[in-house]
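Posting for a labmate who doesn't have an account.
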Amino acid sequence: MERLKNSGFYKLKFFITPEELKSLLALFEQKQVQFIRPNHAQTKYDYDQVYEAYSRFYQSFTATKEENREENPPHFVYSLLSKLDQGKSGFFLKNEGVSFPYLGQWAEDELPSIVLSFPKGVQMDLEDEIGKYYIYEDIREHRPLTYGLYHEVANEIKKITKLLRFSVPAPEGLHEQKTSVRVSKEAMNDMRESWIFNKYSLVMNTK
């Protein structure tokens, strides 16, 4: 039996400059959060390596000429392990493309975003007369300090960003695309001049 109350994730999608990411990394560093690649080896990365990886990811999408970007944009995927509360908990950071229509179909390229996610529940293994099962109890009760850090980081992102709005050309005119991605002013300016905006004649609407 599975009881899924409190399952799911808190999520925030964003795109900011590498320098702006540094301030977020500083928040994680203060709390001694570890960055781990979710592979078999569980490889650990220091903050300089994370910054360098994000810089490469960012440049791949904001280069003004397509030939200046990396042929295969690097993935930006990490588990973030926190020991703020008793018991391990943490976040997840990963890149996620933003699809958009172009000439009656989906464009072959996607705009970039990073997703910061944090589980809403802690799995509790239980047993009753029917047998073993589990429920998810509210993460805020079991990992209040870690949830507080997620809330702090999310608020810092929201302070420097606005929702990404852009338009794509269509036969009858421009069609606005409303996304849940938050973009900073500097990242928005870089994106506006990027190869992908030029390639598809996209128009930035976020101000």
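Reply:
Got it, the structure tokens are right above this. Helices lie at 18-30, 47-62, 139-142, 144-159, 185-192, 195-200.
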